[in-house]
Amino acid sequence: MVAFADRAIEKLRARGNPLCIGLDPYPDLIPALFGDARSGVSAVERFFQEILPIAARHASAVKPQMGFFEPYGEEGYRVARTLSAEAQSLGLLNILDAKRGDIGSTAEGYARAAFGDAPGFNADVLTVNPYLGRDSLEPFVAAAEKRGRGVAVLVRTSNPGARDLQDLPVDGAPLWERVAEMIAPYASRLKGENEWSGLMAVCGATYPDEARRLRALLPNTLFLVPGFGAQGAGAADAVAGFVAGPHGLEGGFVSSSRAALYPQAAAVGKTMAAWREAVDTAMAEAAAALRAAIQG
Length: 296
Known about the structure:
Strand content: 15-25%
Number of helices: 13
Number of strands: 12
Largest sheet: 8 strands, parallel, barrel
Strand order of the largest sheet: 1-2-3-4-5-8-9-12
Shape: globular
Helix content: 40-55%
């Protein structure tokens, strides 16, 4: 069994950029070429079946956001699971963005659903919320340790409201730093042979100074970086918490969803060929920007 951290860093180095494509199906943004995504999930499935091969040319991972699939009910869950498997068959890592958080047997159930074989997602990584404390993290870390997977913990998120709680002072440091200190001991349990850990930290691209501080607190932890693109952060800010590696800066995945999935040129495209070209261009530009940022 190869540790997730080893698989991830090998793929990132081979790709040469840290781009991760968020699979966020906004019903109002999916072009009519694929059908009406507001009336059913079949248009969503067709849309992402076209997206995935393009993503495989430019990115190392995809990040299905379950909050967009679950409103479709049982069929939405099925589509998310199917797309996750298709992404992995194309060589993409699958980061399941479900932000689970609970204790005891309930957390164990969430972990089985994320990491288990069908009807589970067989995900490479699951995002989790740490605000119930250490005992809420243990079932997820234990399951990931057993199956060679990763756990991405919310630490310094990209949304403006993050400051409402994450900046509150706790014994002389902001709460998000205390969360980083709390999860640090788990990093060794998910560490690969390359010294990176699959105990990941979610750190928003919109807070580059905090990313640098977080790297000092979690030197071997891979980052999952949202906020690049539509949320306003540039490539340099997105990799602010990365460190020097064999081929440039490295240290995690940078996620883009709306900017990569729904570029303006794709929205006005009248044919499937025009749509594909627009999306391919958007992803290529995102990958190129990140490649330039890690090369300095």
